[in-house]
Amino acid sequence: MKPRDLEMLLASCIHDMKNSISMILNSADQLNEPASSPQQTNEQLANLRYEASRLNNDLMHLLGVYRIKERELPVIIDEHQVHEILQEQFLRNEILLNKSDMEFKLDCDEDELWYFDCELIGGVINNILVNAVRYSKRRIRIKARISNDQLSIEVADDGQGYPENMLHTPDKPQNAINYRTGSTSLGLYFASKVANLHTKGEQKGHITLQNGGDLGGGIFTIYLP
Fold it and tell me: Which domain holds residue 63?
């Protein structure tokens, strides 16, 4: 990444984290209002959890990008049950999904095994899932398949989809906060770098963004050789 691009990405990320903190404080204040209805309380709790999750993800990505730049990010490749790792991401966000009234589906063979860093890949999927909750109308699906000697993990939703300018360069930093990702492109940039760290011979992992599919919204896919 060019120094100027990194500066723009960090500036946008810091601005987004400031917004998340403001939203958290605002939701906390609203929860103290005695006139809040149960429905309003649930919505405020969902917003509070969403913003806290996004803030945590931004901080983790900042640290990850720094470690990648300094070549200090540990990568531990081992064999894992794919379904188990993906199920963990659902459980991490179950409260958020329920409070947001989201319909979630995990489509993955429970016996599927693959070699990857479970912490890094789990973090990538968790970030995409958290953003999908905010921008989906109601339905989110995670699908994993092994084909052509690579594992693909797809996160699809029924929202408005990714903006056109992001579809062709998902691994490039954007110069501004984007409505579809919820903030900056830091999460996608980090996901791309994590994918690249998974190699087999001359093959490298990568990510793609698409719109459409069965749900009609955005589709994030990470491929691991």
Answer: 3-224
